[in-house]
């Protein structure tokens, strides 16, 4: 994966996050309980934060010349798919068993940020 591909994934993540946020605020209010709407909003928040994180990683990757940074971006994207995706499905369907996979996405987020920290720690000019 190149930094260009990571920017593309980040932009798609942010674009769909804005759409999901708007859909939740305007289209789902009448359909979801307050609890499930909060679940939806959590999914949007983490998607947006990590979409911006992916953009940041793509921006600094060329300066650090570290494959670890690009891998971190991919792991962030996987976290968005697993964490936010499972919460979106939970909110829409009420299938609580999906909550069991949500923490896997959270672990992916944490792992990605650890990878960013390691890349910075190892960097020598």
UniProtKB/TrEMBL annotation:
Annotated transmembrane regions: 40-61, 68-91, 97-121
Q: Name one GO cellular component term.
A: plasma membrane
Pfam families per record: DUF423
The superkingdom listed in its UniProt entry is: Bacteria
Is Magnesium there in the keyword field?
Answer: no
Key words, A-Z: Membrane, Transmembrane, Transmembrane helix
Localization: Membrane
Specify the protein's topology with respect to the membrane: Multi-pass membrane protein
Primary location group: membrane
Presence of keyword Thylakoid: no
Family assignment?
Belongs to the UPF0382 family.
Q: What is this protein called?
A: DUF423 domain-containing protein
Lineage of source species: Bacteria, Pseudomonadati, Pseudomonadota, Betaproteobacteria, Burkholderiales
């Amino acid at each position: 994966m190149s930094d260009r591909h990571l920017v593309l994934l980040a932009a798609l993540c942010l674009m769909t996050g804005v759409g999901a946020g708007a859909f939740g605020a305007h289209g789902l209010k009448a359909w979801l309980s307050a609890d499930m709407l909060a679940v939806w909003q959590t999914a949007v928040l983490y998607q947006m934060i990590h979409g911006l994180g992916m953009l940041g990683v793509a921006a600094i990757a060329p300066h650090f010349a570290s494959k670890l940074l690009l891998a971190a971006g991919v792991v962030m994207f996987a976290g968005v798919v697993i964490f936010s995706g499972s919460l979106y499905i939970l909110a829409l369907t009420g299938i609580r068993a999906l909550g069991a996979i949500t923490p896997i996405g959270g672990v992916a987020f944490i792992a990605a940020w650890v990878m960013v920290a390691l890349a910075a720690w190892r960097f020598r000019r």
